[in-house]
TrEMBL record:
GO terms for biological process: defense response to Gram-negative bacterium; innate immune response. It comes from Mola mola. GO terms for molecular function: lipid binding. SMART domains: BPI1 (SM00328), BPI2 (SM00329). Residues 256-459 form the Lipid-binding serum glycoprotein C-terminal domain. The cytotoxic action of BPI is limited to many species of Gram-negative bacteria; this specificity may be explained by a strong affinity of the very basic N-terminal half for the negatively charged lipopolysaccharides that are unique to the Gram-negative bacterial outer envelope. It is found in: Secreted. This is Bactericidal permeability-increasing protein. Belongs to the BPI/LBP/Plunc superfamily. BPI/LBP family.
Length: 465
């Protein structure tokens, strides 16, 4: 998507609000330089659209007198843009400048001859203003444009070309004026053409059947000499139901770094809003059955295995298979500390005996406190992860089979979590959720650091179309 894609990323500028962001993005001067490289090809194509209409008239040429002239079929043959720059205008937006540009034209004159016009030392300067539309998406406009032609040379060939060459300076100036009037118009049009493409940004990105993540903008950008810092909501919602969680994002800021094109900060608020959404949707519950336990394991989900630790289970329900229901009872809590992501979850484990008629008879309910460590990584343009069990604490909530020592079930429940629950959880986490992106963008040279309160992703970007 070249210039359009990259300027779209540059212009992710938030709606003014007092809300702290869940996600912050810093676009560095290295990123702008990549955008410049992409953009020159697009601007070059735009300038090839210059249309110089046919024109004719009469010019007095001493000592010959009045000479009629007619120029037609004027076409752009080549556009060269050897020098260009995109820069940040602190507190304002982005400036685009092009210098030493060259445009070559070819056309016909009335006596079946032809002419060549070379425009040299063309310079263009444009200022781009950035704001947000009413949907939280970015919108750009040109606030100023100047185009200056340094010099032109025209040469007529064929027929009575010697006569046209006598007043070539007049025709040269006429052609120069015709060009100069159109250049800024094309630049303004090119900038306006970005806006439909900006609508393709994943402001609301579906994650799965339960959740979507919103990346609408929550505050105006901070444009400095070195970067554009902008703020996104970065909040998960149940699909179709945007209920706010009972907690709020806290302010954080990204460190000043410039070795990558982009820096993306994902706060603990974002991940905790995901936990809120999935818990509210009932997605953090799981029935665990014996077929989820490895076949070679000596521990089975049946009354015989559990009866070894709780004799009354085997006595009252001999020879029955069992089923466990694991579910959270409040929102899991995600915390970020340097080089460490921890998730704490509070839940219950309800054990059932499966009767021959497939009805479930409750045996006991355990209260469960768990802590897991998470490894987080970027996969494509998605943020993914995997967890491993740190610790688990069981207490007895309700027993339908009498009192028993809960600690005796520690080894069974740890095994169940490790072989049945965590693999399913990791399979889901490996799918990840979308990061802010646009078009056919790929993230390359990506590194991820876990800092206090947020994760920092440093990355370069590549557009494939």
């Amino acid at each position: 998507m070249s210039l359009c894609s990259w300027l779209a990323l540059v212009t992710l500028i938030p709606v003014i609000s007092s809300t702290n962001p869940g996600v912050e993005i810093k676009l560095t001067t290295k990123g702008l330089e990549y955008g410049r490289q992409l953009g020159m090809a697009s601007i070059q194509q735009e300038l090839k659209k210059i249309n110089v209409p046919d024109f004719s008239g009469t010019q007095r040429v001493s000592p010959i007198g009045d000479v009629q002239y007619s120029l037609s079929n004027i076409q752009i043959m080549n556009v060269g843009l050897p020098t260009s720059a995109v820069a940040l205008a602190p507190g304002t937006g982005v400036t685009l400048s092009i210098g030493n540009a060259v445009i070559s034209l070819h056309g016909n004159w009335r006596d079946s001859g032809f002419f060549d016009l070379n425009v040299n030392q063309l310079s263009i300067a444009s200022s781009i203003a950035i704001k947000s539309d009413d949907t939280g998406r970015p919108e750009v406009s040109n606030t100023d444009c100047t185009a200056t032609v340094g010099s032109t040379t025209v040469k007529f060939h064929g027929g009575a070309s010697w006569l046209y060459n006598l007043f070539s300076k007049f025709i040269d100036e006429a052609l120069r004026n015709a060009l100069q009037k159109q250049i800024c118009t094309l630049v303004v049009d090119a900038i306006s053409d970005l806006n439909p493409r900006l609508k393709s940004l994943n402001v609301v990105a579906q994650v799965d059947q339960y959740a979507e993540v919103e990346y609408s903008m929550v505050s105006s950008p901070t444009v400095s000499k070195y970067s554009i810092d902008f703020n996104l909501k970065g909040e998960f919602y149940n699909i179709g139901k945007h209920q706010e969680p009972p907690f709020f994002p806290t302010a954080f800021s990204l460190p000043l770094q410039d070795s990558n094109m982009l820096y993306i900060g994902v706060s603990a608020f974002t991940t905790n809003s995901a936990a809120f959404v999935y818990n509210r949707a009932g997605a953090l519950s799981l029935y665990i059955t014996d077929d989820m336990i490895p076949k070679g394991s000596p521990i089975r989900l049946n009354t015989r295995t559990f009866g070894a630790f709780i004799p009354q289970v085997a006595k009252r329900f001999p020879g029955l298979m069992m089923k466990l229901l694991l579910k959270t009872v409040k929102n899991p809590e995600v915390t970020f500390e340097p080089n460490n992501v921890t998730v704490k979850a509070t839940g219950t484990v309800t054990a059932y005996a499966i009767q021959p008629n497939i009805t479930l008879t409750p045996l006991f309910i355990l209260d469960l406190e768990t802590s897991v460590s998470a490894k987080v990584f970027v996969s494509g343009t998605r943020l993914a992860g995997a967890v491993s069990l740190n610790k688990m604490v069981l207490t007895l909530g309700t027993s339908y089979v009498g009192e028993f020592q809960v600690r005796s079930l520690d080894s069974i429940l740890q095994m169940v979590l490790k072989v049945a629950v965590i693999p399913k959880l990791n399979a889901q986490l490996a799918k990840g959720y979308p990061l802010p992106s646009l078009g056919k963008m790929e993230l390359v040279n990506t590194q991820l650091q876990v800092l206090k309160g947020y994760m920092l992703i440093g990355t370069d970007a590549h557009f494939t179309g």
